[in-house]
Amino acid sequence: MKKYSWEEFARLMGIEPQVLENKEARLLKKFVDEITWPTHCNYCQGLDLSNPNPVHHPSYELTPACNHDCIFCYSNVAVKLGKAPKPGYYGWDNPKAITVSQYGEPLLSPRIVEVNKMLRERFPEARLDLQTNGSLLTRELWEKLDFDVVMISLDAATREKHRMITNADTFDAVVNALKIVGEDKSVVSAVRTIFMPGINDKDIPKIAELAASLGIDEMFLQPLTIHELNVERLRKAGLDFERAESVREFLKAAMEAKKYIDVRISGCLLVQLKPMDPLTLFSVRRVAREVAPLVKRSKLEL
């Protein structure tokens, strides 16, 4: 028995098949095809879809403490649940990249310069990434640091919104940190922003424009992961939980930011989106809920 494609079968029935058009879906697909992931994501196992259990590249954790108390923060959740990693190196020998750090605010630690120097000497071939909220970065401290990639978190375009999200009056200090790092073209600089629809979606293009004006190279835009202990705080702040799980809404925010800066989205997400057809991109949703963040790498004594 001959098998027919759906187009052939439709024509046998006297119907000319038509492909549904969706202009917005085509624009999403074009955008996904054209963008890439942040420099920070290079060498991450999550870029390899054939890896069944990818882990983030190594990190050196200095402290779980932070001078911000962000309404979305996974590090705070880890501390409250007793899951925050102890200070030290979590990774393996011969890493291609190391992040300082994934938990807490590394610039709170008096050991930041010492650890930075130790990692450079111990792993001279590795790319060193600093992940910070930037509020404690000064020019004096910057001159003592030696990183290849610097990511500074900023999730609001105004002092008032920043205070609401972080529970800290540090907006001007963070902007100053972006300026310090943006002026140094020996490093790759990125503003790291979390997409929180209903809270900061209108801020994102403004953050992109501000960062670009300060010489920042990339915007690392990330979708929100909603941890159970943060749900009530996010709800009170106005989070649209439905839109927070929509890939389409996330990509639309990235497209707006792209007008001002080289916007990039998480590599482990992007590699999953690139093979999708336009209509799938338009409708797909992501699982945005999690209970407790965990470090999936073993601690290695240096």
| Helix-strand sequence | HHEHEEHEHEHHEHEEHHHEHHEE
The order of strands across the largest sheet is 3-4-5-6-7-9
Q: Which consecutive residue ranges, at least 5 long each, have pLDDT under 50? A: none
* Mean pLDDT, all residues: 94
CATH topology heading? TIM Barrel
Q: Report the biggest beta sheet as strand number plus sense, adding barrel if it closes.
A: 6 strands, parallel
Radius of gyration: 21 Å
Class from helix and strand fractions: alpha/beta
- The counted number of beta strands is 11
- What is the approximate shape? globular
Structurally, the number of domains stands at 1
The percent range for strand residues is: 5-15%
Distance between the termini: 68 Å
InterPro entries: Aldolase_TIM, Elp3/MiaA/NifB-like_rSAM, rSAM, rSAM_sf
Cofactor: [4Fe-4S] cluster
Keywords: 4Fe-4S, Iron, Iron-sulfur, Metal-binding, S-adenosyl-L-methionine
GO molecular function: 4 iron, 4 sulfur cluster binding; catalytic activity; metal ion binding
In short:
One of its GO terms (molecular function) is 4 iron, 4 sulfur cluster binding. The protein has helices spanning 6-12, 23-34, 74-80, 112-122, 139-142, 159-166, 171-182, 204-213, 231-237, 241-244, 247-257, 267-273, 278-283, and strands spanning 59-61, 88-90, 97-100, 127-132, 149-153, 188-195, 218-223, 226-227, 262-265, 289-290, 299-300.
